[in-house]
């Protein structure tokens, strides 16, 4: 097994390059199923979730070749509609996008209930299924499989009672080749929704309004291959922004879209950090003790829930009391137990964390409960006095490319270290 060992207390200085967006790539890769053709996808992050998705496509009959580390060629001509078993989908939450893509292409899909990141709470998919039903699909969930089937999908109006990134994406995937007009109301507006729409339109789809509350999709009969470059990862960039401010460092974060980072920029400035925006890079630096602020996560363009744990670490080191409310997920504060082990003073009250800022954190053995919780532990370790050891880093590898190399290059004391599985009994005598 592997863990990260971080020797804290070093400010981050220098430049870091952001990789392609995980949450865009997990939608764009299955979208290639919608045409039997050749695709070249650039800026594909080399992370576990994406490599799992590529493996699933390969197992379904696609040919995958790497032109460079981040440019992948996908030949989907060998893919056929097939049940996608649990073995392939269990570690990847976003495998549910195979449902929308297969349904859109073949009018039928059978995919095992997804596994993946759960932050200890329930992650329902009722809105996805409601969207498929509105397009005319019959849905059944039996034996751990979700099956969706239609004679022909017909465009329809789909209203989501709650803003859902996944349901918006899945309905877009299913509707691009449906007959007639689909209107998604109360749609999610995240940058990856717009990126997927741009990709599908380049394939020949007719999607308007992505990035607003109402997305209109006029079904087309044929789609084709294309070359496309995935947007930079908003959350990876935000994580480095917060790490720069929390360590009182100075980072130039390159290959970003500053507009996507605005909610994070605004809050960092409110805490007293300096953020300078350039065309495709952003500089963050901070000196002295920062002051706390309140955070409430919201769907885009609100403050992203995927930055909530990382920002809470910064607030734990700021002066004063901060209140962090997560209005997207019911149960995203599990990581707080780990931060408390490092000396953070945080109390959970319902959907809010009350953070009493303290002057320092102390290194401790901690766990990455999930992907963003793991990112928060890294930032805490970078700021803490002494050594922090983070276990369960498999979660971090799901979403952060080369995190040790990137952080090491800007002055962090971080290493990936092998250690024996504590469950393995080591014989005392021969
Ligand atoms: C996406 O998850 C992201 N994952 C998550 O990022 C992110 O936290 C989330 O959007 C919110 O921004 C991917 O893009 C792969 P939702 P998703 O559907 O699509 C409720 C990360 O760390 N809901 O927008 O699953 C749900 O319970 C990951 O990169 C329903 O009630 O999130 C939640 O309260 C973690 N019924 C809210 O909507 C449904 O059918 C938003 O969820 C679907 C969702």
Lateral strand order in the biggest sheet: 21-22-1-23
Q: Structural class given helices, strands, pairing? A: alpha+beta
Proportion of helical residues = 25-40%
Q: Can you name the CATH architecture of the largest domain?
A: Alpha-beta prism
Q: Compute the number of structural domains.
A: 2
Per DSSP, the total helix count is 14
Fourth CATH level, the homologous superfamily of the largest domain? Enolpyruvate transferase domain
Query: What small ligands are held by the chains?
Result: ligand EPZ
Estimate what percentage of residues fall within beta strands. 15-25%
Poorly predicted regions: none
Under CATH, the topology of the largest domain is which?
A: UDP-n-acetylglucosamine1-carboxyvinyl-transferase, Chain
Mean pLDDT, as a whole number?
Answer: 95
- Globally, the shape reads globular
Alpha carbon gap, first and last residue: 24 Å
Descriptive account of the structure:
The structure is a single chain. The protein is an alpha+beta fold and about 425 residues long. It folds into two domains: about 1-20 and about 230-420, Enolpyruvate transferase domain (UDP-n-acetylglucosamine1-carboxyvinyl-transferase, Chain, Alpha-beta prism); about 20-230, Alpha-beta prism (UDP-n-acetylglucosamine1-carboxyvinyl-transferase, Chain). It is about 30% helix and about 25% strand. It has 14 helices and 23 strands. The chain has helices spanning about 20-30, 50-60, 85-90, 95-105, 125-135, 165-175, 190-200, 235-245, 260-270, 310-315, 335-340, 370-385, 395, 405-410; strands at about 1-5, 15, 40, 65, 70-75, 110, 140, 145-150, 155-160, 180-185, 205-210, 215-220, 225-230, 250-255, 275, 280-285, 295, 320-325, 345-350, 350-355, 365, 385-390, 415-420. A four-stranded mixed beta sheet has the order 21-22-1-23. Strands 2-14-16-15 form a four-stranded mixed beta sheet. A hairpin with a 3-residue loop joins strand 15 and strand 16. Helix 1 runs parallel beside helix 2 and helix 8 (about 235-245) packs parallel to helix 10 (about 310-315). It starts with a strand and ends in a 12-residue tail after the last strand. The mean pLDDT is about 95. Bound molecules: ligand EPZ. The site of ligand EPZ has 24 residues, from helix 1, helix 5, helix 6 and helix 12.
């Amino acid at each position: 097994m592997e863990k990260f060992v971080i020797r804290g207390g070093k400010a981050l200085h220098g430049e870091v390059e952001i990789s392609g967006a995980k949450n865009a790539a997990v939608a764009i890769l299955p979208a290639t199923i919608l045409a039997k053709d050749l695709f070249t996808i650039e800026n594909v992050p080399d992370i576990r979730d994406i490599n799992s998705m590529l493996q699933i496509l390969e197992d379904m009959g696609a040919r995958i070749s790497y032109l460079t580390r981040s440019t992948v060629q996908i030949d989907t001509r060998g893919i056929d509609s097939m049940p996608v078993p649990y073995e392939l989908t269990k570690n990847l939450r976003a495998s549910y996008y195979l449902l929308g893509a297969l349904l859109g292409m073949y009018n039928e899909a059978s995919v095992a209930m997804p596994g993946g990141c759960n932050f200890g709470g329930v992650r329902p998919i009722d809105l996805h299924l409601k969207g498929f039903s509105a397009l005319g699909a019959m849905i059944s969930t039996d034996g751990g499989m979700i099956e969706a089937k239609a004679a022909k999908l017909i465009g329809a109006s789909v209203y989501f009672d709650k803003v859902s990134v996944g349901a918006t994406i899945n309905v877009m995937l299913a509707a691009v080749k449906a007959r007639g007009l689909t209107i998604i109301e109360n749609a999610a507006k995240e940058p990856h929704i717009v990126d997927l729409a741009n990709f599908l339109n380049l394939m020949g789809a007719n999607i308007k309004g992505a990035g607003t509350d109402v997305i209109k999709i006029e079904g087309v009969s044929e789609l084709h291959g294309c070359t496309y470059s995935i947007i930079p990862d908003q959350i990876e960039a935000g994580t480095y922004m917060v790490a720069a401010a929390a360590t009182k460092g100075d980072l130039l974060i390159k290959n970003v879209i500053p507009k996507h980072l605005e909610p994070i920029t605004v809050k960092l400035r409110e805490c007293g950090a300096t953020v300078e925006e350039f065309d495709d890079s952003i500089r963050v630096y901070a000196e002295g003790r920062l002051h706390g602020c309140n955070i409430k996560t919201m769907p885009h363009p609100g403050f992203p829930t995927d930055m909530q744990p990382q920002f809470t670490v910064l607030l734990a080191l700021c002066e004063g009391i901060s209140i962090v409310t997560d209005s997207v997920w019911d149960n995203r504060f599990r990581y707080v137990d780990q931060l408390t082990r490092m000396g953070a003073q945080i109390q959970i009250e319902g959907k809010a964390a009350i953070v009493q800022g303290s002057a320092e954190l102390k290194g401790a053995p901690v766990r990455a409960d999930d992907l963003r919780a793991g990112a928060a532990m890294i930032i805490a370790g970078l700021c803490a006095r002494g050594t922090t050891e983070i276990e369960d880093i498999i979660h971090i590898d799901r979403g952060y490319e080369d995190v040790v190399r990137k952080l090491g290059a800007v002055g962090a004391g971080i290493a990936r270290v092998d250690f024996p599985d504590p469950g393995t009994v080591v014989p005392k005598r021969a």
